[in-house]
Amino acid sequence: MSVKTTVSDTGPWVGQPLPRREDARLTAGAGTFTDDIRMPGMLHAAFLRSPHAHARIVRINADKARALKGVHAVITGEDVERLTKPISTIIPFKMFLPNYCLAVDKARYVGEPVAAIAAVDRATAEDAAELIEVEYEPLPAVVDPWEAIEQPPSFVFDEIKSNVIWHDTFSYGEVDDAFSRAAHVVSDRFSVQRYISTALETMGVIGKWDSSGLTLWSADQRPGFATHALTTALQIPHSQIRLVSPYIGGGFGNKRKATYMVIVALLAREADRPVKYLEDRQENLLGLVHASNQVMDLEMALDADGKILGLKLRDVVDEGSNVINPTLHSMLKFTNMLNNYTIPAVRFEGYAVLTNKCHSGANRGIGKPFMCFVIERAVEMAAKKVGIDSLELRRRNFIPASAMPYESPMGNVYDSGDFLATLDTALKTANYDDLLKQQEEARRAGRYFGIGIATAVEPNSLNLSAYTLMTGRTDTSGVGEGALVRMEGDGSVRVSLGNTASGQGYETVVAQIVADELGIHPHRVTVAPGFDSAVNPWLHCSGSFANKFSGTDVGAIIEAARTIRAKILRIAAHLTGRKAEELTIREAAIWVHGANEPLLPLAKVAMTAYRDLLRLPEGEMPGLEARHFYVDPQSNLPAMSKDDKRLRFQLTFSNSAHIAVTEVNPDTGAVKIHRYIIAHDCGREINPMLVEGMVHGATTHGIGGALYEDLIYDENGQMLAGSFMDYLKPTALDVPEFEVVALETPSPFTPLGAKGVGEGGSIPSLAAITNSVEDALKPLGVTLTELPLTPNKIWDAIQKARAEGKDT
Amino acid sequence: MSELKQHDVSLTVNGKAETISVAPRASLADALRDTLGLTGTHIGCEHGVCGACTVLLDGKPVRSCLLFAVQAEGAVITTIEGIGDAQSPHPLQRAFNECHGLHCGFCTPGMIVTLSAFLKEHPQPTSDDVREAISGNLCMCTGYQNIVRSALRAAELIEGAKS
């Protein structure tokens, strides 16, 4: 396809499909994941988890567990209440919330840790867990989010005296006026299930105490965030907590779990030995984190020509037992509700609701897959109502390329993109006219053949000032990242980041970026595979989230590299009697601009910086090391006025158009994806091979969400999808060969013109597949508003339509 | 449990004869990782669905999480460490790098071990054959497409090395 496949031997390196540096060890099974770390005397932990969705803990007797040979430590809620403070929350609650690392007094979801054991091996720890006697008094479980609001059978947190943890209305533009002028109004209720990325490496933590404090090795992808939670919970200074993320086997937002870290820290302290905990897959599905199930009521006002005038939205997010960071889904959804359309007026009423389910949290795209699902389904419905083709309706409403940068009513500034070109590229790649003919033939043959289109923005980075507008919290703002670049005495370079690596290929792409800045080959740049808070530069917002690498992190890397570059040139100028402005660096040497021969080797300058200290320019500090903390310049503070709720919530915007070609088997309700076409634009591509890989992976995540994956609870709050036999992931047989074409509209707001790409595919895929399946079932007049599209759901819809005599 | 009697198991791992002492309930995966220190065999689900722990037992791919170590008495086991390394990579390891067949790399050892046996029996596979062959190995990162490409490329490399 359009991806560049050849690598040249010289720079510039940014833009080249360089094969990855990290692969040699990973393909040889020599990657160091958390579970691969072994320490002398290390114990293994097991957790006893609640079998009840909601139950008071009357009594726990752990005597037998403590007496078991090989057991070194057992902790229960009582210990935790005595030894720790609750995990801190993003919403500044006024009341005390007993949100501890283990259930204290009551369990709030099936799978909540109730007790923890450290023993000589995992099997012994699990034996001990079985010996713990817990007397539960079951309480009515809060399962349905609407019921949780309107007729709560009980409260998840009695202290709040409501299950509504957040409720607010945000209104932008003249919404009532828009609806009074409307020629057409589309309204419907849409819903999405709980699903999750299930990184193949489950979450793990190793804890060890020594005279310098606590060290934790874990797969945590937001170490900045975790350190803050740990210091609050354990009441030890930040400076005594060292957090190491060796290398993460997939994150997708899911791998942030302060509760596990606190439990392991307590066990390790009690046992006075290093302790390792690793989730098994059932624990991972029950208790790591879930993307929320969400329900949205939409009303869309359109004029007679199909121009969208406004939206009224009422949304409920089922946060489960999440009091740590609720409102994430609400915020990231509603602030992007325009998708890629000019919609001048939007009112969003949001509820974040507590239920007796696993806590919600970050997962690839947070809220935006559902945003896109709702809008792109509504666009299809609107087109029918207006009586025009849905492609035409999209074209009439796209934010035009000429309007960039475009400020949305919510205050987001769309930096770049040509949405029309993206859509047209997808249609052309798909041979859309031929597809329509194929569909006609298939329908004549009685087959249910569908073509579904969805277009989407993929927002990048996250301005944490957003929490001020959402929750009233005023101690956090902006977004940034840290990078450290150090050129050694031989001219080779090492780099470390505040971000954590979980498969993005940072060891390769960061080397490409730094190689260009410092005029060396990327093979001379070694990027630390992991994070170590005692070594790497980091901020509290450090880590892997919100697609922030391509803009925010790159800013930190480039600034640090440029500081080194300027210093190299100053030292070289001093050594050669030239002016720094006359000089440049390339091919690992210092050159006078335009000269045919290099002036001196880069290594000579580097060595001078480290050992020939008296021959450095006067006042120049030795060494070639720069640590840069970058604040993304697009992030801003909310307006001082209470009425102005505009903010640059997210900072740059990639975009894509997906076309899914599907066929429904009417006898089984199963959906087969025949073709899947993707046109996407993430600005300048740092490494096109890795970009395309991200597109495949993210889209596959959406296919799972659309068709297979469902973290389903029964009416008693029992979780029914506790294994990969029940929680179905897409396999190689379910996923089509993606046809991907890239457009490159550079962002004017990021240092390299690059934009995020990791989340993109997961955003329009739910809508593209659903639009396609509904189109396949067009002869039956079926309307699809609820995900996932499992065979039984589709089959039921077919039977219902046939019973109503709709089959044509 | 610590009181349970340990069993001696003699087996060949990556060409080397080993006798290991394991608990009767220890899985082969745990024995390889913990007793022999071969941590390239990854554990992703422990119920035989994800395929990350795949090793070759007498040349056939098996899920080492579903076997007890004691069942491997007398067996010839090949783990990812026995397939190749950075110095002398197997064509699959080269191809996975060339074709970007991995992101986080957690599923990769299982994928490569599975495919190493598959390519022996199917030296000229189609992409559908490859998809079928890896349908019991889950990858959460790549969407499989580049794994399929990697397998096809490895088949080419193996064929090229023969001629």
Offer a few descriptive terms.
heterodimer; A: 808 residues; Aldehyde Oxidoreductase, domain 4; eight-stranded mixed beta sheet; five-stranded mixed beta sheet; 21 helices; 29% helix; B: alpha+beta; DNA polymerase, domain 1; 2 domains; 15% strand
Task: Report on the architecture of this protein.
The complex is a heterodimer of chains A (808) and B (163). Chain A is an alpha+beta fold. Chain A is built from 21 helices and 29 strands. Among the domains of chain A are: 398-461 and 649-801, Aldehyde Oxidoreductase, domain 4 (2-Layer Sandwich); 480-631, Aldehyde oxidase/xanthine dehydrogenase, molybdopterin binding domain (Aldehyde Oxidoreductase, domain 4, 2-Layer Sandwich). Chain A is 29% helix and 24% strand. The mean pLDDT of chain A is 96. In chain A, strands 3-5-1-12-9-10-11-22 form an eight-stranded mixed sheet. Chain B is an alpha+beta fold and 163 residues long. Chain B has two domains: 7-83, Beta-grasp domain (Ubiquitin-like (UB roll)); 91-162, DNA polymerase, domain 1 (Orthogonal Bundle). Chain B has helices at residues 28-35, 80-83, 91-98, 108-121, 127-133, 145-162, and strands spanning 7-13, 16-22, 54-57, 60-63, 76-78. Classes of the chains: A alpha+beta (808), B alpha+beta (163). The interface between A and B is large, with 59 and 62 residues.
